[in-house]
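Curious: why this fold?
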Amino acid sequence: MTNIYTAVATASGRDGRAASSDGRLDVKLSLPVEMGGDGAGTNPEQLFAAGYAACFATSMKLVAPRKNLDVSDASVTAEVGLSPNGAGGYQLDVALRISLPPHITPEAAQDLLAATHHVCPYSNATRGNVPVRLILE
């Protein structure tokens, strides 16, 4: 398979920096207060949430025209939880809160979300590994 794009980023850990190879991303990382940190920087879960929300929203805008739907006013909010996995490590869980225009029926919305969930690269990467809830708001 030939990649159409490859992102490259380097991080020094949860208390440090993360930067992309092209310099467009350069952020201070810190532990959240809930994990004993000062919360002065961002964290991997926030970055994952932003990426997943953007990716799902873009995928939905790709799928919607195929179903004759206009989702130009739609938005996606991702909530990424981090919890112990019971084996000494950690696991993620995700809730995607999707806001669609009111003219889209609940049935059409559910069909759109299911189809988008199969197109979105983040959804495909997490399937079977991370619980993802799609919540229509």
